[in-house]
Amino acid sequence: MVLFSRRLALGAAMGLCMACGSSSDGNPNVDGALGSGGSGSAGHAGSPGHAGSPGHAGSPGASGGLGSSGSPGASGSLGSSGSPGLAGSPGVSGSPGASGSPPVLTSSAAEVAAKLGRPANFLIGMGNDLDEGNDHNKDGAFTLGTTLDLHYAYLVAYLNGDGSWGSWKDWNPDGSFVNEIANTSDAHGTVPMFTLYAMAAAGDGALSGLASNTFEKGYWGDVKLLFQRLAIFGKPAVVHFEPDFWAYAQQQSHGDPTSIRVALKANAPDCAELSDDLVGMGHCIIKLARTYAPKVLIGFHASEWASDDASATAAFLKKVGADKTDIIFADPLDRDAGCFEAGVDPNCQRGGKFYLDETNTTSPNFHEYLAWSKAITTGLGRPMIWWQVPFGVPSATPGGTAGHYRDNRAKYLFNHVQEFVDAGGLGAAFGTGAGNQTTWDTDGGQFKAAVKKYYQAPTPLR
After folding, report:
1. Would the pTM count as exceeding 0.85?
2. Which of 154, 202, 227, 257 is the residue whose CA sits 20 to 30 A from 416?
3. Distance between CA 33 and CA 56 in Å, rounded?
4. Count of C-beta atoms within a 10 Å radius of residue 37
């Protein structure tokens, strides 16, 4: 088994989403598979040489080595979450996938915030910011002097050199990394959130793992373990499932999720009654969440580049069960706009226009993006969390330098929170999607000042 540290894994995760985010040129995966230019994909991360540079400048998310001793939350027996089908599952009535499916419920953002134990105000979060010394009390979100609503961490998977499955479960004994992050977030008054990015273990955009028993056994074992670990935590948390994956699945299935085989029944015993396809996969995630960790809120990811038609993306996600989750996620851009404009970083070699017009008079602009977002939230009846929002600072000069690339999404969002609420928003979680981006500690204090001001008069949710 290849030794794979959290430092390498999270560095790889930061280089995964080459196709994430909005662009004016359609599907932004024009630069080929992940790994070009040295960023590495989760599927090639079993070899540390493919995982990205662990000491990347300005790279949050480097968290130190494996198996730190004294991991909080490692105690307690797995499977202690109570009986399957526990009533009161957040946002959904009844068991997904069972015969006689329950009617879809439309959850307001305020209702979802209440299930997380937060006031009915637009939520602010931050993530991919783990302390390099593995002291999670020093993670970036807890250094701002303001208590945020959400703190997220990546959970990634990779194939070892011998082809066997490896993942976040190996970072601490028995997957207790989840409890380490959850307990620390809770101690700081923040709801823990996890982004599971494991489907890319076969390679970015490669769906071949879906039909592999080895791949699927590892995947479903991890999903179940994640919920068992969150059951031990025993408090509300959020799990964000598979950025990019659903968009690739939509494109490759031509919008028909029954056309792609998933080796589900043989490898996820809890879901033996579900279909061996993408529909079964989506509903199995929901079933495992409701069965093992009913206090946890979950959501799938919508990508703007999946289709030119937002209603088609909403329809596809509905087919795989996204309307039976609690939240829908989207990323407005996975890197600072200026990184693409500068064009010198190997992680930013995608063509298009990425700096949005704040006056909303020329394209691309914020109103266009929010119209797409509203089509998704309306189509699914679920509120949205905009995830991995870049930290970049506005500038009249295109580009920038490593750690100081320009972007205006953070500024616009904090100055127009009501527009995001009106689009069906629940909150926004800021973070970097690659190394060398502007971060909370290289942005001249923009984010720190913005969150302090925001919480003095937060914007109510609907």
Report:
1. no
2. 154
3. 21
4. 15
